[in-house]
Amino acid sequence: MTSEINWLEGGTITSPKGFTAGATYSGIRTYTEDKLDLGIVCSESVCTVAGTFTKNAVKSPSVVLDQQRVATGRAQAVVINSGIANACVGEQGMTDAIEMAALAAAKLGLEAELVLACSTGLIGVELPMGLIRSGTDKIEMHEDGGHELARAICTTDLVSKEAAVSFEVDGVTYTLGGIAKGSGMIHPNMATMLAFLATDAPVDGAYLQTSLSRSVDCSFNMISVDGDSSTNDTVLLLANGAAGGSAIDASSPGADAFQAALDAVCADLAKAIARDGEGASKLIEVVVENAMNESDARVAALSVASSMLVKSAIHGADPNWGRIIVALGYSGAQVKEELVALYINDVCIMEGGRPIPYFKDAVVLSMSGTDVSLRLNLGLGDASATAWGCDLSEEYVTFNSAYTT
Amino acid sequence: MTSEINWLEGGTITSPKGFTAGATYSGIRTYTEDKLDLGIVCSESVCTVAGTFTKNAVKSPSVVLDQQRVATGRAQAVVINSGIANACVGEQGMTDAIEMAALAAAKLGLEAELVLACSTGLIGVELPMGLIRSGTDKIEMHEDGGHELARAICTTDLVSKEAAVSFEVDGVTYTLGGIAKGSGMIHPNMATMLAFLATDAPVDGAYLQTSLSRSVDCSFNMISVDGDSSTNDTVLLLANGAAGGSAIDASSPGADAFQAALDAVCADLAKAIARDGEGASKLIEVVVENAMNESDARVAALSVASSMLVKSAIHGADPNWGRIIVALGYSGAQVKEELVALYINDVCIMEGGRPIPYFKDAVVLSMSGTDVSLRLNLGLGDASATAWGCDLSEEYVTFNSAYTT
After folding, report:
1. Beta strand B234-239 with B38-53: parallel, antiparallel or unpaired?
2. Is A353 helix (H, G, I), strand (E, B) or coil?
3. Given pLDDT bands bounded at 50, 70 and 90, which one contains residue A187?
4. What pTM value is reported for the model?
5. What distance in Å separates residue B58's CA from the closest CA in chain A?
6. Is A92 on the interface with B (CB under 8 A)?
């Protein structure tokens, strides 16, 4: 599949045909030079839409509104602010989410029900609707506005996250692009994480949702920064069909190519989020192979990627296989200790459940880089899964001791 | 119940009648002045015995041996070493566990099958049986040897953990005492945590196991330091009946008094473990009230006590209610946001799911102490649960980046 995908340098959510975006500084966040905190992405025509949302029992009303609107299967734009999450504010939250979408719709000349609204930031504080009203007016939409929008949705992120690919079906070239924000509180079930994806492929609504859920399960739901999941996590995907060609559904020849493109962009954005975890200096990739079944492979990979002791050890470039095996052991996956093999950056350091001699200095040196790969072979079946996390640093604690609600 | 319990100052595992203990420095650990690393607790007569053990799929053979021997219902002594965990060492581990118990049995003149063996420390390293042989010989048993033994089982613990209570049934005074070790890797399902308990009450074996499981569920299984659980976690309880009186079983008049005494000692040791978490400066107590059912209350309390963002906030004395509500929300417990109330050190800061005005300086000041209490009222039912954790400090990360397997 991946051979059919071309990565677009500088690609973003407005790389697909017929999408524009823009952003502004509305005053919600503390002013800093070139700060942006409110933005919109819009399609020239009505799109099919799919979404996945936080599983937290405490949800932002913006999430509830988007769930309702995504259920209609149609959408044309998304308006997003950073700085305030519109959560834990009582009934006013739904009123404000509806108004925020309506303001963007009025500006763009769209039906209000075709606009989705997302927020991220502090909870327990009402959205400053005066600032959002005047801010929405100021937004200018551009064909390459995705870069601005990617910056506007960031909170404690150090870098903005964007990616796009092209792929071909029956001689037609399609583009799929996206942006994301993450940083603290990243975990499975979509923790304070926003991702927005767009494609100019003509994808059937039901298949769009199926393929998004599948991609999210292998990407955003397989990253862990600190195990906390938030009130606002949302992934949205719009498909406007602007590149033409025949409709893509589950039985189309183009279905696999589309899924592969979506998988690739989601995985790329998810890894960028893990790498940019608060205080993180390394991306940790955990591959579990030959598990009894996929569910076991997933929980095992996530358990290792989420272990604070593993994260701390990797921060110190320590090939601490004991902590890795312990995290595997308590994951809930079926494990036969005597069959387990472990590779750190492709060097085998355990076989048959026991440590084997290896050149420790070389492994420690390789672990001092920015990418550390852990591979666990369980020797039980043929299922595999990959999870991503980041190291745990003193900076994480310092940062999160001094940052209030 | 608690009115019937008398705390014994300086109480330990040898406070009950008929128990002796001793410890020595055998050389397993790096030498430091007054370091101890091998010890034994022994009853003058055969005891009924109960135990709870790690749920980790990767278990020390010592745990497997103890599970087999506890299943017989009878035991008389426990030998314990710190420094090396006897885990991930292949078949040699069982051979060594059996020999370690047999060495203690020979020294004490007991049947080998009546001795249990526990280890804690590095994994992947074989027990140095030569040192254990000569060390076992050197151990001198004392009537107040519990204090020595409590020190000998410590690894990264900063303080040893001991407690004992007395209680009365039908005019007979009984004593129940215990010791524990914890520090890093503490979590529900009994993470690198050892606890040894002894009583001179004549407790029926089946009831001993029932009451131990119940007490452990409300104490050692409700603490969280870093979410990792280990290969070696074990809680053992010996009852020798040396104080006389009628046998205590589930239907005896003394059953409740015994359970209350056991609950009290287990909770006291569990809190001591949480307070002494690696790098910790504060004990966090999380009480969840008025949950729909006990399972919900438990998962909610543990979710909040385990949240890295909550732990970091409390380290900084920050009344960050947002993170507390988010951790409640993703716990899996049924939550109606509009009914939730939150108290920090008994000051109400949220009601009806929304923050309310409070005197922040006073709350911050109270949070700068060594004990922080969080109380969440869910307003849904009448179940409650308490969990304990510690704050997350920069020292935790520093320590765990520089400590190898």
Report:
1. antiparallel
2. coil
3. very low
4. 0.86
5. 5
6. no
